[in-house]
Design goal:
heterodimer; A: 286 residues; mainly alpha; 12 helices; B: 263 residues; 77% helix; globular
């Protein structure tokens, strides 16, 4: 009898773990093991541990694609940061009712498909697009400009894709800056511009870092936007990965690209995330 | 809090950002009713023929049905596993270490295209799993973080002593969960399902690698269509997709409040 009771007790002590087990198993078998497999395979070239990487970087085309991807991701992060800050700053300082409307307006694109959002930029930047039509009606240009399949188009499309994420990362941070700080700064004689640069901006840094990590890793990993807005001339790591995996079936190179993308994402999340955490923690102590 | 005063120039910039975010959607809606075979904005004339085109192109309907199956399947798997995990993580905070909860956010940090490619190699090539179940499992992973997060947030506000009182009065723990806990976190469960559903419905990265001959999802079909024909039919599909999203957003708004869900 006593042994049975203890068995029941032991089972119920396991209860919490039994409840997280199904989710953990799904995550382990469908996400962690497959992705870890891809990482491992990127090192499994018989010619040596780093042979895949050596081959990848030996090809000047690959290097060009990689540098272009990082440049596009960096520039779209910068654009999203500037736009997102502007949007979040206004939303955070709006009255409650307006805040709700503006937040819904800026988050709505996030809930539509990436294909739809990239397509909308084709409609804007295309030969018969909104920008060309407007410029020609105004008489500023006589022939439509070729704006699609340029790096600018990809950057604009990615900035559009990710600015809502930046706004979400920043609105909370900017809202939480206490009114007292502004009052104090103002009463000590700081001009509004000085208050912005010496109070608002430094306090928003952790939110800016978190948002930038999301936008940078997202921009690097997005396939649809560079394909539709950039095409072949603007090949990025994500589009090259797809091409190697699904068109030329060169899985060695695809594994390597996947591992490079994973490494970049881990680096951004861990390093920049830690910096953001440290800054917030230091603020909390003071 | 009422609004703080900000510089008129930063207000203007803020409005331009909102315009940048909302403008493209207005343009897509405009081009979808334009009576021209190419995308025109402002629309010239008015027609609904592009919407009729959507329903006449069998690819869109067929893939919509598959997308719905995948979204429902993925959401349900994520719901069952995620609800149990969220419950255990909040209820037994003392027994399960805090870092364990963040494991379920891994899908947010792994580049989706890497995930899709890895799934192709394991589920399809290695284990020879058919496409439909592979897609459902892949989407379940994409949905899981939303479930754990949103349901976890509503469980955090639940007073577990009510459930304990019922159990101590003799109610079976499982019945106590169904009749006491679940009704109290209903809005969180609905919000989690809705977010998961939208995520699955919009996914490209996983479907890109897992779809094959005969089985494709709606976003992939739209993507393929855009590359072949650049006409207002895509605008019409986009508007219809947005309609579904708005419907679903209204559901979240009614059950939980959007601002709570997204922050």
């Amino acid at each position: 009898m006593t042994s049975r009771v203890s068995l029941v007790q032991r089972l119920s002590a396991l209860g919490p773990w039994l409840l997280v087990l199904p989710a953990t198993a799904v995550l382990l078998f469908i996400l962690i093991i497959p992705v870890a497999g891809t990482l491992a395979e990127s090192f499994s070239n018989p010619a040596g541990l780093f042979a895949n990487y050596r081959d990848f970087f030996a090809d000047s085309y690959n290097r060009t694609v990689m540098i272009r991807s990082f440049r596009i991701a960096f520039l779209s992060t910068l654009t999203a940061l500037i736009l997102g800050f502007g949007g979040a700053y206004m939303i955070a300082n709006s009255s409650q009712g307006l805040k709700r409307v503006l937040l819904i307006l800026s988050v709505f694109p996030l809930l539509t498909s990436v294909v739809v959002r990239s397509f909308s930029f084709m409609a804007i930047l295309g030969r018969n697009g909104v920008v060309n039509t407007a410029l020609m009606k105004l008489g500023l240009i006589s022939e439509p400009m070729e704006m699609l399949f340029t790096q600018g188009a990809v950057i604009a499309g990615l900035a559009y894709l990710f600015t809502p994420l930046m706004i979400l990362s920043l609105v909370g941070v900017l809202e939480n800056i206490e009114d007292d700080l502004y009052l104090a700064a103002g009463s000590l004689g700081a001009a509004p511009v000085a208050v912005f640069f010496q109070v608002t901006l430094p306090l928003a840094v952790p939110g800016m870092i978190v948002g930038s990590v999301l936008v940078f890793t997202g921009s690097l990993a997005t396939f649809v936007t560079p394909t539709l807005l950039g095409g072949e001339p603007q090949m990025t790591l994500a589009t090259l990965l797809y091409q190697k995996a699904m068109i030329s079936f060169d899985w060695g190179v695809a594994n390597t690209i996947a591992a490079i993308m994973m490494g970049t994402a881990i680096f951004c999340v861990v390093v920049l995330g830690t910096i953001a955490g440290r800054i917030s923690a230091r603020r909390a102590v003071h | 809090m009422t609004g703080r005063r900000i510089h008129p120039l930063s207000k203007l910039f803020g409005w331009l950002v909102i315009l940048f975010l909302a403008g493209p959607i207005v343009i897509v809606i405009g081009t979808s009713v334009s009576d021209t075979p190419y995308l025109a904005f402002p629309p010239q004339g008015f027609t609904l023929k592009w919407y009729a085109n959507v329903f006449n192109h069998s690819g869109f309907l067929d893939t919509f049905i598959i997308s719905m199956q995948v979204a429902i399947g993925g959401t349900l798997i994520a719901l069952v596993t995620g609800l149990a995990a969220a419950y255990a993580l909040t209820r037994y905070r003392m027994k399960i270490p805090g870092w364990y909860g963040s494991v379920f956010f891994l899908p947010f940090f792994i580049p989706e295209i890497v995930f899709g490619f890895s799934l192709l190699k394991t589920l399809i090539v290695q284990f020879q799993l058919p496409i439909l179940p592979s897609l459902i499992l892949g989407h379940a992973i994409l949905c899981l973080p939303y479930m754990v997060r949103v349901i976890g947030a509503s469980l955090a506000g639940f007073d577990f002593s009510i459930q304990e009182a019922a159990i101590s009065l003799g109610m079976h723990p499982v019945k106590a969960f169904w009749t006491i806990v679940l009704p109290n976190i209903r809005s969180g469960v609905i919000a989690g399902m809705v977010l998961a559903f939208i995520t699955s419905l919009n996914d490209m990265a996983v479907a890109l690698f897992l779809t094959g001959p005969g089985i494709s999802t709606l976003p992939i079909e739209v993507f393929t269509y855009v590359q072949q024909f650049f006409d207002p039919t895509v605008s019409a599909v986009s508007v219809l997709l947005m309609g579904v999203t708005i419907l679903v957003m209204m559901l979240i708004e009614r059950s939980l409040g959007l601002s709570k869900t997204v922050q």
